[in-house]
Amino acid sequence: MSRKFLETDGPAWVAEGLISEAQRQKLLARYPPEAQALGLLPLLGSVLVGLSALSVVAANWQALPDALRLALLLGSLTGAYAAGAYFLRRGNADLGHGLIGLGLMLFGASIILTSQLYQLVGYDVSGLVAWVVAGVALSYVYGSRLLVLLTVLIGAAVQTYCVQALGSFSYATAAMVAGGMGYYWWRRPDAVSSTVLAAGLLWQAGLLIVVLQAKITWFFVPAMFIYAAGDWQPNRAGGRALQGPPLVAAYLFMFGLATFGETDTYANVLRPPLLPYLGALGAVLALSVAGKRARGRLDTLPDWLLLLPGFYLPGGLPLAVATLVVLYAHAGSVLARAHRQEDPNQLTVGAILFVTATMVAYFKLTWAFLDKSLFFLLGGVLLLGLSWYLRRRNAQVLAAVPPVVPPASVPPAAPKSSSTSENRLPND
């Protein structure tokens, strides 16, 4: 239920006598009006004006004197921050944070253009790391989800540049994103920021695996460490949001094993040394179990089914059956948890996972039985068509029934006066 729904349908409820006006006002008080978001027109207009100015400057950049270039960079940077602070003081948080984010982007552009202007050493990434530091600092100062998103994206861009252009991994960048933004997430476990941070950290972990040229399954050790951090978060919604991207990555990997898992062919890519890998993953599992026990979330322990190292099995039928069993067990655990908690969203997710596992099993194990597949296809189409027809017919029948008008309320009968009986003589 929302306030808008109460405002539109509430007067009709009062008129029909379902609730009183006082009750409607109490319901409205439980859903205070949301703060009016600033329209996108001023923000889009500012962006277009800024892009126009940038295009003019870029077209004549090489012809401008060095002093004028620096003045333009410093002026645009200072102007963006000043305008953002001004609108924040005026109460326009959306536009203010947008301009602060624009200033952060201009700060990075100033670093790059200044390096080109003075022909600084191209393999020094200290300036780009300073860009990440500025993003972390602004995120703490203003507490904006937009700045968190920009900082994580900047960290991913800087790390990608280091890996692709320089062939090295910037541990300082990874530490700033993981440590700085991780502490921010711990203090402010917003669902959107948690998801963005987890995705950014997974990107950092993937680039580290690429630089180290390690087996790709080592990726799941830091990925599940991120998952374990979500188990220790007191805010359950924020913790589950952080765990979403690692679980998606683990599920996609298990899905790929079930569908294309010929590990004998890709053994040199998937199979790390057994004992070190299981030891590292077991340590993360122990940390996760401790967090679940401390926060009372042991019902989510079946999430770890997706991390069973089935890629050590030989390829072909054994691996296909093992991974399908894991997918079914994981889907069943999600459905069971959804029924216990009466969570419709989790119930939908569990149903989708179960159907996905069934589709994988069907196409992986019974694809050769074309006659059976056609039988199942026709049967499923008929059942779906029958269900649609019955629902439509039911809706038509209900629409044809006239609405039941409640009977008019009869005023209670007036109590009989006792004055007559009191004044009546006993012999009357």
From TrEMBL:
Record-annotated DUF2157 domain positions: 12-147
TM stretches of this protein: 37-61, 67-88, 95-114, 120-141, 169-186, 207-228, 248-267, 274-291, 311-335, 347-367, 373-390
Keyword Mitochondrion on entry: no
One Pfam family from the record: DUF2157
InterPro entries: DUF2157
Region (Disordered): 407-428
Keywords for the protein's UniProt record, in alphabetical order: Membrane, Transmembrane, Transmembrane helix
Protein name, per record: DUF2157 domain-containing protein
UniProt organism field: Hymenobacter jeongseonensis
